[in-house]
Amino acid sequence: MTGRVRCRRSPPPSFPFGIGSGPDGNIWFTEENANQIGRSSPGGTMTEFPITTASSQPEGIAAGADGALWFVERAANKIGRISTAGTVTNEIPIPTAASYSEFITAGPDGAMWFTERNANKIGRVQLTTPFTITEFTIPTASSGPEGIVLGPDGALWFTESESTKIGRITTGGTITEFAIPGGFALSRAITLGPDGALWFTQDAGNAIGRITVGGTPSTYPVTTSGVSPTGIASFGGLIWFTENLADNIGHTVAGPGAPSCASFVRSPTSAIVAWAAPSNNGGSAVTGYTVTANPGGISTGAAANATSATLSGLSNGTSYVFTVTATNTVGAGLVSTALNAVAGRICASQSASPSPQPRSPVAQSTPSGHPTRTVQREPSRNPTAVAGGSQPRLDIFPAYFLPLR
User: Which 8-state DSSP code applies to residue 164?
Assistant: First the structure.
């Protein structure tokens, strides 16, 4: 697998930090050193807007329900608001002095929620005048909250960089904390995964963490030591993360989705089973298919480009259920909807994707002239633990930087 990252440069030394998509279809980002908010069109046209307060040190930024962008000013100890036209309309002081706010996200209640690392609090700012800020103290002292994201349960989930916990706060302000195994790990950024769980980076722990909304945690070490996993995002059914000290971008790889539109034609002792390739290959090319008939577990393999296969050795007079499974380098993916009863019947396939959880390491080579990449595979577990029986892995590949100016 190859990957490429294209970089568009803002004028140095701006030190871009936070980034997010705006309601206007542009990308918005903060310039920590230049004291500006930047806007980039999808085509790369860059515009910068100064912040009223000098040396405010803007960091996290996110779109709000009011159609504006909201950002934190770590040095100025304020929450800022900028319209999509580029006007900084408001800067609201945070009640606790020197709160060291870093990240911000939109909540399900129409407010913006942010972390206060030094103050050990989670803040909430309402998006209607007079833009009141409410603060909620985290039970664990000096927990160092950093990343924050909206979870599928309607609560806000946040990392505690100075503790061994992940926090959850309801819109009513109730905080619950969940212990993470493995000791101090410097948990940083956090994102919602395609599996409905929360995934986060562990900088000092050199690992990727995962926690379900029920509070069950998992930790997956990154094999290459000292890479400092920092940023994390969910895209295309995979979890992507940055390796700050290794110049790498990593992502999970899952087993393929289920083959679709499967059908069969039955004869007394055989059947021709046909299918269409899965719409989602899990991030790795399909390497083959397996067609199975039950009862009896009679199966046959097929090549990666095949769309049909013949199963022989069936018993005349016996009713069989036929299924098709695609395989990639991770393993077997989701199973197609079972085919039975009517010959030639076309059935829909499952649409769920396997939970993208990493595996233990296996070295792989990259194209000539580029650094070696590391692929991680988790040890084999109960095949029913992930839909379709496949166990996803984590791929890492080097980032290729292409300055446009």
Answer: S
Give SS3 for 267.
Answer: strand
The Cβ of residue 290 has, within 10 Å, a number of other Cβ atoms equal to: 16
Those residues with Cβ within 8 angstroms of residue 86's Cβ, 6 or more apart along the chain or in another chain: 37, 39, 47, 49
Separation between Cα atoms, residue 31 and residue 18, nearest integer Å:
8
Alpha carbon distance 40, 10 (integer Å): 9
CB 157 within 8 A of CB 168: yes
pLDDT of res. 9: 52
Q: How many residues does the chain have?
A: 405
CB 282 within 8 A of CB 354: yes
pLDDT tens digit sequence for 357-405: 443 333 232 333 333 333 333 333 222 223 333 344 555 554 433 332 3
Q: Which two tokens stand for residue 108?
A: 């399900």
Q: Which DSSP helix (H) or strand (E) runs through 12? A: none
Instruction: Give 38's contacts (C-beta < 8 A, 6+ positions apart).
Output: 10, 14, 16, 28, 29, 30, 31, 46, 47, 48, 49
* Contact status, residue 255 vs residue 331, Cβ threshold 8 Å: yes
> What domains, with CATH codes, occur in the chain?
16-253 (2.130.10.10), 260-335 (2.60.40.10)
Q: Which residues pair with 243 in a beta bridge?
A: 229, 248
**Region 219-227: what's the mean pLDDT?**
81
Write out the two tokens for 137.
């103290």
Helices first, then strands: H and E counts in the chain: 0, 33
Taking the C-alpha atoms of residue 373 and residue 364, their distance in angstroms, rounded to an integer, is 6
Among 138, 147, 28, smallest CA distance to 86 is for 28
